[in-house]
């Protein structure tokens, strides 16, 4: 089968690799019709992780079931399914408590938790930027779609990661109807966090970024765009909230945060978040931070350490949630919002491309070329 293969920093190619197949009785085999390129693919693409050369990216996947193992009882051949980027067993201590993002049995490294398709440090699983994908524990990990699956495919594929991840940021921040919310980062996840806050009935949503195409999308869904290359976002948010700061804040940038002139500063958005959220406000951090970052510009950051303004955070009595999203906690509900016509997260898709165009798509998305807000690859030419 054809798949996107990681060759080394800033280099992917589309190559023939061994076909994905059923390996265990609980597996499901999916013909991938849509697989997104994600911001976390870019961390790996740039060589800023331990992702091994020769492996395939792709953790935001949707497709058609073409074969099921002998122990699969719910999922049927021919069904359209969207797959949480987390691969989870459903029976370990963490899965039982709903933390499928930190599954203990799908992660082979005993000191780690959590597994995903085509992801650094998250197990050996191949990604879905390929014609076929093996889904372990298919009954648990497949979310089945209804008759509108093809018509709304671009909406449903966002349920694999970014829509639930954005929603999770607002859950951890504690967004409640009427709240004022500030969101750092208007990449796909930041836009999904803004969209989620709006769906939840937030009174005012402010989105901080500096890319005009992204800010335009934020405005289009009813958020206030804040260009941090032109204004101080902390002052802006305070002005908008009678000096108090926003009720809730979400960090959707991560460790490669940088100032408008391009200097990396991993604490930039975190400290601005603390500063622009009010006393006893809630923070949700879904931007990626890592325990080590050998490619970082300074010593502290190389060890995964961030000069976090803990004093201010403690003084303000804020609370913070962090980490990857347990997609299964939300995906059914978000699917049903889409099915019911209450959400249409595909508004951020700028490009739909065949698998062959992946190298060019990675280059443009990684260079933040204007207008490349979200790329969906269609391996099966759907
Ligand atoms: Zn993703
Ligand atoms: Zn588990």
Any overview of this molecule?
This is Glutathione-independent formaldehyde dehydrogenase. Its cofactor is Zn(2+). Residues 188-257 form the Alcohol dehydrogenase-like C-terminal domain. Keywords: Metal-binding, NAD, Oxidoreductase, Zinc. Belongs to the zinc-containing alcohol dehydrogenase family. With 382 residues, the chain is α/β, with parallel strands linked by helices. The protein folds into two domains: 2-161 and 327-378, Medium-chain alcohol dehydrogenases, catalytic domain (Quinone Oxidoreductase, Chain A, domain 1, Alpha-Beta Complex); 162-322, NAD(P)-binding Rossmann-like Domain (Rossmann fold). Helices cover 25% and strands 22% of the residues. The chain has 13 helices and 15 strands. The protein has helices at 39-45, 93-96, 138-141, 153-156, 162-173, 188-199, 212-220, 233-240, 268-276, 299-302, 310-315, 331-339, 358-366; strands at 2-8, 11-16, 28-37, 61-68, 80-83, 132-135, 143-144, 180-184, 204-209, 224-227, 246-251, 277-285, 319-322, 351-354, 375-378. Strands 3, 4, 5, 6, 7, 14 and 15 form a seven-stranded mixed sheet that branches. A six-stranded parallel sheet has the order 10-9-8-11-12-13, with helices on both faces. A two-stranded antiparallel sheet has the order 1-2. Strand 11, helix 9 (268-276) and strand 12 form a beta-alpha-beta unit. The longest helix is centred in the middle third of the chain and has 12 residues, at 162-173. The protein is globular and about 60 Å long. The two termini are 16 Å apart. Bound molecules: zinc ion (2 copies).
């Amino acid at each position: 089968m054809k798949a996107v293969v990681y060759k080394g920093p800033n280099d992917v190619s589309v190559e023939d690799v061994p076909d994905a197949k059923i390996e265990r009785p609980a597996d499901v085999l999916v013909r991938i019709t849509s697989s997104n390129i994600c911001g976390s693919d870019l961390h790996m693409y740039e060589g800023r992780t331990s992702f091994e050369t020769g492996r395939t990216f792709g953790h935001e996947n949707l497709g058609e079931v073409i074969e099921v193992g002998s122990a699969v009882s719910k999922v049927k051949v021919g069904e359209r399914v969207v797959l949480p980027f987390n691969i989870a067993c459903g029976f370990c201590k963490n899965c039982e408590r709903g933390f499928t993002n930190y599954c203990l049995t799908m992660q082979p490294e005993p000191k780690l938790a959590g597994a995903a398709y085509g992801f650094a440090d998250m197990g050996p699983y191949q990604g879905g930027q390929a014609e076929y994908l093996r889904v372990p524990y298919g009954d648990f990990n497949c979310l089945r779609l209804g008759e509108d699956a093809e018509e709304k495919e671009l909406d449903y594929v966002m349920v694999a990661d970014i829509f639930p991840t954005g929603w999770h940021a607002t859950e951890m921040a504690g967004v409640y109807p009427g709240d004022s919310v500030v969101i750092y980062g208007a990449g796909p996840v930041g836009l999904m966090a803004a969209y989620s806050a709006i769906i939840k009935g937030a009174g005012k949503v402010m989105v901080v970024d500096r890319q005009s195409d992204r800010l335009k999308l934020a405005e289009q869904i009813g958020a206030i765009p804040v260009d941090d290359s032109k204004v101080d976002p902390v002052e802006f948010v305070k002005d908008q909230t009678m000096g108090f700061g926003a009720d809730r804040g979400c960090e959707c940038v991560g460790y490669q945060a940088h100032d408008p002139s391009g200097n990396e500063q991993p604490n930039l958005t975190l400290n601005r978040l603390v500063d622009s959220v009010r006393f006893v406000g809630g923070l949700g951090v879904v931007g990626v931070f890592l325990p080590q970052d050998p490619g970082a510009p300074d010593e502290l950051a190389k060890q995964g350490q961030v000069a976090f303004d803990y004093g201010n955070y403690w003084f303000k009595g804020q609370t913070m949630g962090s980490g990857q999203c347990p997609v299964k906690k939300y995906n059914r509900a978000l699917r049903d919002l889409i099915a019911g016509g209450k959400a249409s997260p595909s508004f951020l898709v700028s490009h739909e491309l065949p698998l062959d165009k992946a190298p060019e798509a990675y280059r443009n998305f990684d260079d933040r070329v204007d207008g490349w807000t979200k790329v969906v690859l269609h391996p099966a030419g759907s």
